[in-house]
Amino acid sequence: MAVRGKRAFVSFFDRKFKRILLKLSGEALMGARDYGIDYDYLFKLVEAIANLADAGIQLAIVVGGGNIHRGSRGVEYGVSRVNGDFMGMLATVINAIAIHSALNKLGKESRVMSSIRMQEVCEPYINHHAHKHLSKGRIIILSSGVGIPFLTTDTAAALRAVELECDVMLKGTHKVDGVYNCDPAKNDEAVFFEKISYSEILEKNLKFMDASAVTLARDNNLPMAVFSIKNPSNLLDVICGKCRCSFISGEKD
How far apart are the first and last CA of the chain? Predict the structure, then answer.
């Protein structure tokens, strides 16, 4: 379902979600800053995350690192893509520790898990350990992507959501409030999709996330909502169907 312009509003969450994967872009943590972490914004976001946990929702978070480093940025200066991607993975660990620290300040139990082993800093990502943390009500923050270059944190989020048997994946973005056929910041006639399937996204070659992540979500029938996280309260609103967003479904949904 496509809607032209920016006035669409959709309410579709009419079922219970017990386990959610939240994908946060690194840029979201910048808040009002141009770089790094805006701690005023971070604590508002973490309050919203804590409220979800208080409501009994099991929550896994995959965080990007674009507010600190992107793997492609150093290529023109001679940094290989492989090394650049590993630098980006380390940036996600910094963000994950920041979220973990903020949750601890609110008294919420959480664990940072990494696809790259660094036991002095965080736990290694082991699937059955992650399941155990979630079942005990702990929030898990998953860092380092999938631990290998050339795959983004969007792909990591889709993979972890499937592995952890999440009911839905929420993708909170900094730049847009859903899925469009082109960049709405550059084109006022951009078409907003209230509902769309993964196959349609691939057919239309929409670039809101990696094709590998889209394919993984489609093949495992993982529903997803894409929304703006600029206002942290949107995290609660999107669960209740009170926030503008795009809902993406698999072929069987």
Answer: 15
Q: State the DSSP code for 190.
A: P
User: How far apart (Å, rounded) are the C-alpha atoms in residues 84 and 253?
Assistant: 37
Q: Which two tokens stand for residue 223?
A: 């529903």
pTM: 0.90
CATH of domain 15-249: 3.40.1160.10
Token pair 């290529």: residue:
75
Tell me the domain boundaries of the chain.
15-249
% pLDDT > 70, the chain: 91
Q: Which residues contact 132 (CB under 8 A, 6 or more apart)?
A: none
Question: Helix (H, G, I), strand (E, B), or coil: what is residue 251?
Answer: coil
pLDDT tens per residue, range 101-154: 999 999 999 999 999 999 999 999 999 999 999 999 999 999 999 999 999 999
Other CB atoms within 10 A of residue 81 CB: 13
